[in-house]
Recover the amino acids of this structure.
């Protein structure tokens, strides 16, 4: 009588391989159920994968623009707040000048000078504001403090004193009380004003560039996202402030003081107009940015939809397949355990 050799090793190995393959498939299905996309898009899509890659590149570009626009939005908002502070300072000086028009009282003039000094300090602080480590009003020179503060030793103060001394010497004016209204008007318009509207402004006051930062907010749209202190609104404010600080309380006649007051009011009003124009320019950028962001959101949704159409899977079907596989694996574990317990010894 002949007997055949019987072994459960081959059966156990087959069951083990089935379990391993099932576990790998479960991991893959778990990822697909979680992400809603193929675990390996290249294998599943084949030649269609190139289209998916192109769409993902477009999606990345749009998301980068969206992130950049968020920074531009904050930069514009901070700039508008600074301009509002600067305009408030100009309005404060205008109010002070109106209140002191025709007033020669030394105490009142001293208080006015203090108010104007405070307004100038507030204006300078707003002009020198920083955002993310960059000066907002330096134009493209974002790493440079744009506006030099006015002090007793600042270049602007030295230039003013030199200009006044030279004018008085040239015109035979011994003391401030000898100024006539016509001479004061001539000094303000033909000596002082050119120092603020010409090249000397860069020497005494500004380290900013007149070229502003431009930011791309969409594929074909660029907007101005900063401003600078070389604008007419800032220059005229500085001129008005220095005039009133240095001349309004000087020992001059009532007529000359009124001339100084009226000229300063005129410059302050020009400053307010200029600051409003600058704010309006940035406001246009904000409006364009808002529209660009709305367009970007629509494009992002559209591209995401196309990518999902290509790479997306039926998560319900994948979940059902995963549960079926888990059941099969559990069954395989049970069968393997039983096979391992089989032994001829148990039957002898």
């Amino acid at each position: 009588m002949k007997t055949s050799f019987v072994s459960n090793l081959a059966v156990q190995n087959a069951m083990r391989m089935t379990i391993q393959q099932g576990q790998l498939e479960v991991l893959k299905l778990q990822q697909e159920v979680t992400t809603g996309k193929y675990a390996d898009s290249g294998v599943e899509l084949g030649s269609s994968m190139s289209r998916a890659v192109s769409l993902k590149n477009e999606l990345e570009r749009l998301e980068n623009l969206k992130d950049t626009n968020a920074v531009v939005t904050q930069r514009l908002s901070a700039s508008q707040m600074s301009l509002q502070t600067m305009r408030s300072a100009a309005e404060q000086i205008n109010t002070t000048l109106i209140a002191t028009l025709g007033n020669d009282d030394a105490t009142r003039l001293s208080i006015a000078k203090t108010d104007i000094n405070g307004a100038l300090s507030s204006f300078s602080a707003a002009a020198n504001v920083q955002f993310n480590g960059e000066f907002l009003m330096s134009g493209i020179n974002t790493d440079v403090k744009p506006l030099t503060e006015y002090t007793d030793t600042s270049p602007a103060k030295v230039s003013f004193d030199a200009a006044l001394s030279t004018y008085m010497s040239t015109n035979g004016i011994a003391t401030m009380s000898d100024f006539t209204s016509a001479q004061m008007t001539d000094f303000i318009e033909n000596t002082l004003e050119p120092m603020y509207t010409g090249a000397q402004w860069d020497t005494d006051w500004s380290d900013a560039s007149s070229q502003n930062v431009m930011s791309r907010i969409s594929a074909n749209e660029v907007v101005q996202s900063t401003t600078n202190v070389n604008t007419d609104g800032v220059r005229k404010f500085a001129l008005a402030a220095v005039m009133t600080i240095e001349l309004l309380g000087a020992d001059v006649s009532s007529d000359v003081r009124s001339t100084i007051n009226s000229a300063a009011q005129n410059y302050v009003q020009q400053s307010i107009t200029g600051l409003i124009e600058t704010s309006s320019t940035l406001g246009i950028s904000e409006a364009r940015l808002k529209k660009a962001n709305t367009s970007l959101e629509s494009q992002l949704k559209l591209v995401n939809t196309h990518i999902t159409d290509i790479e997306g899977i039926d998560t319900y079907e994948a979940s059902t397949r995963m549960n079926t596989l888990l059941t099969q694996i559990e069954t395989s574990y049970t069968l393997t355990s039983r096979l391992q317990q089989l032994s001829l010894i148990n039957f002898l």
Q: What stands out?
A: The chain has ten helices and four strands.
